[in-house]
Amino acid sequence: MASYFENIPRITYKGADSKDPFSFKYYNPDRVIMGKSMREHLPFAMAWWHNLGAAGTDMFGRDTADKSFGEVKNTMAHAKTKVDVGFDFMQKLGIEYFCWHDVDLVPEADDIKETNRRLDEISDYILEKMNQTGIKCLWGTANMFSNPRFMNGAGSTNSADVYCFAAAQIKKALDITVKLGGKGYVFWGGREGYETLLNTDMKFEQENIARLMKMAVEYGRSIGFTGDFYIEPKPKEPMKHQYDFDAATAIGFLRQYGLDKDFKMNIEANHATLAGHTFQHDLRVSAINGMLGSIDANQGDYLLGWDTDEFPYSVYETTMCMYEVLKAGGLTGGFNFDAKNRRPSYTVEDMFHGFILGMDTFALGLIKAAEIIEDGRLDEFIANRYASFNDGIGKKIVSGETSLKELADYAENMGAPALPSSGHQEYLQSILNSILFK
Ligand code: XLS
Ligand code: CA
Ligand code: CA
What we know:
Elements: E1 12-13, E2 23-24, E3 32-33, E4 36-37, H1 38-41, E5 44-47, H2 48-52, H3 76-93, E6 97-101, H4 102-105, H5 112-133, E7 136-141, H6 160-179, E8 184-187, E9 193-194, H7 202-222, E10 228-231, E11 241-242, H8 247-256, E12 263-268, H9 269-274, H10 279-288, E13 292-296, H11 315-327, E14 335-337, H12 348-375, H13 377-385, H14 392-399, H15 404-414, H16 425-436
Parallel strand pairs: 1-2, 5-6, 5-14, 6-7, 7-8, 8-10, 10-12, 12-13, 13-14
Antiparallel strand pairs: 3-4, 9-11
This protein binds D-xylose (XLS) and calcium ion (CA) (2 copies).
One calcium ion binds near residues 268 and 309.
């Protein structure tokens, strides 16, 4: 078969001075940083839904890009061509992983038995391609939000029949994840939330979600899935309020229902910012709880209040992301570009420019994060900032060898404490700039 991308060369590293639009300026897979190659630090993944599916439709207008790839859409022929195109695309960029929803892989049939048959067929074909190319599956998931039956959620629905349908989709998506050797399985609670509390039993809905997740874990482990389950937090959109609001909320939920041993977080940059946090914040919350699993690598727009899923270009954000990832000792998952071209960027070339931008932005973030750590001034500042807990009464607090009474006595004898040491924020920000732009 002729390559759909025959006019696009294989993308290689040419350095920051290169003017070649089809080259990496910073992503040099073999370059070693802090003892590991960039390729190992940055297991990049292609999101099936955006790259092979999203064609620009928004609330006010139809597709601008042509993602038919020469086939009639919503047919198995189209589904197979998407596999060919997707693997060709990943090979041209040197991307080693992909992520999918069940309905990204095949058109959904009226009867789930037929949808599942189609999934069997397409996953056979994907497996062949994986064996030929060495490309791997990062994670799979079930789309339990697009079909109208999921208008009130899947695990949180008010319909027991819809709940069972969701269970059937999860079961099959887990089967395919295991068949493809996926490292993870994602729960993004797209419509697991509510529009109004006037009609919602919040406690019951959350318990039901937990029941569904528990059954998924039991089933997954029974068929040999040894990877991580992930919750991907998002505060809103499509629902007014979603239960997995942010990492802290999702981790609390997992602990409450005894799911924390099997689950980690899949943190998406744009979802963290929608929750009113920085990307770094949700990564830190996950990391300090031992639950930093995987990342959906994209970027939101600070002027817009919705999920724009842009290719990341802010080196500030990717630097602080990679700082968290390096400090956490890496990810068990990878960096999935859950990102799409802007609607007016509708050409085949734009598909590549999006990934080149994203991969270079993360590579640059990695380089700069390593420089921050090697420079050491930020880490040293933080360590010194808490030095009053290293000895004396501070040390007793940390080791648990004191009481409220002793602290109160100490305070009474001390008089008014001096102000805490300065946060020196502007100084630290200037260090960051000097490392970023040297
Ligand atoms: C939507 C989510 C979704 C998940 C997978 O906002 O990002 O695409 O990553 O269901
Ligand atoms: Ca996502
Ligand atoms: Ca998103």
